[in-house]
Design brief:
With 340 residues, the protein is α/β, with parallel strands linked by helices. It contains seven helices and 27 strands. Helices cover 19% and strands 26% of the residues. The longest helix is centred in the first third of the chain and has 13 residues.
Length: 340
């Protein structure tokens, strides 16, 4: 566990049994200064953990924040106090694994607010902490309560639309980071880190605890745990193996100015300025023939031995079918107009 200190206060949704389904935090904080940290601890009466503050505690917190110049946070607290929704405050004095829904949502917010990068906070066991939820046009609904809610809507002459059933909601329903374009927001989960200047096209996908430094073009799949360096392009239909999709515990990353060709697949890390030919899938155990400057074979290695190295071009010999690797003499350059 690290000493990463985080705090957030927000509103959420509970089921009929009083269990949290989701939480929205308008302004999560990471490592706030000592004065603010002391105000939060004194006003809420906690050093770590979560609390559903009373109106008196919210009023005390709001007053202390305004008195000490934290006007924006005080304004958020004032809005929360006027809400008829359940309010929760979470304070994590150490970066331990999340055990509750409010703790889990705080960590996902930290990622999507770009306060921490993928692998920058402990998400161990988050699947067990989150509930599987029906995400509908009326918000989050407990799966067990969905049939009754569907019937109630129909009886009232309304249609309750179920957008998906999942443990993770769309990122843009909670935060829209600055300077990004997302063609289909359902394909970017809360907990994704989407860097400034990133474009995610319709078939692009970014999982939680994964993302892009920005600027980047994403037309393929960025799986959980994967982080793409600035200027890299994930081509149409390309797939990067993550820790949840067959990659095991291996952490896969792309360096800067890499290109994954259309329908390619990557199961190792790449350094900077690497290119993977369209349609070629490289796994850690793939046998790769190394070529010299005259494109003559110099030996064979497993792809894992090339993991993280820069200036490499991977291709398949169209005659023999052999996977080959040689020095990449060109780096990908993104269209500046598309990522401005």
């Amino acid at each position: 566990m690290s000493n990463l200190y985080s705090f957030a206060i927000g509103v959420g949704t509970k089921n009929s049994r009083g269990e949290w389904l989701e939480v929205f935090y308008p302004a999560p904080l990471l490592n706030p200064d000592t004065t603010l940290g002391d105000i939060l601890k004194v006003s809420l009466g906690i050093d770590s953990g979560e609390i559903e503050p009373s109106l008196e505690q919210l009023a005390s917190l709001q007053s202390a924040l305004r008195h000490n110049g934290f006007t924006e946070l005080a304004a958020d607290i004032a809005l929360l106090a006027e809400s008829n929704r359940p309010v929760v405050a979470v304070m994590l004095s150490q970066d331990s694994a999340p055990t509750t829904v409010p703790e889990s949502y705080l960590k996902l917010h930290l990622l999507s607010h770009r306060l921490v990068k993928p692998h920058g906070t402990d998400l161990t066991g988050i699947f067990g902490a989150l509930k599987n939820v029906a995400w509908t046009s009326a918000g989050a609904i407990d799966i067990d309560e969905l049939p009754e809610r569907l019937l109630q809507a129909r009886m009232a002459g309304q249609v309750l639309s179920v957008n998906c059933v999942d443990k993770f909601p769309k990122m843009v329903d909670y935060v829209v980071p600055s300077g990004i374009r997302i063609a289909d927001p359902s394909r970017v989960r809360l907990g994704a880190y989407v860097g400034e200047g990133t474009t995610v096209m319709h078939e692009g996908f970014i999982n939680f605890n994964a993302g892009t430094m920005g600027p980047n073009m994403v037309e393929g799949r960025v799986s959980a745990g994967v982080f793409c360096g600035a200027g890299s392009d994930v081509g149409g239909g390309a797939s990067i193996m993550g820790t949840l999709s067959g990659g095991g515990s291996m952490v896969i990353a792309l360096g800067e100015k890499c290109l994954l060709g259309a329908n390619s697949g990557l199961g190792i890390s790449l350094g900077d300025r690497c290119t993977l030919e369209a349609g070629l899938y490289i796994t850690a155990g793939t046998i790769v023939t190394m070529l010299d400057d005259q494109k003559q074979p110099t030996g064979k290695v497993k792809a894992r031995e090339l993991s993280g190295k820069s200036d490499l071009l991977f291709r398949r010999n169209s005659v023999t079918g052999t996977v080959e690797c040689l020095t990449n003499k060109s780096a990908v350059e993104l269209n500046a107009a598309l990522h401005a």
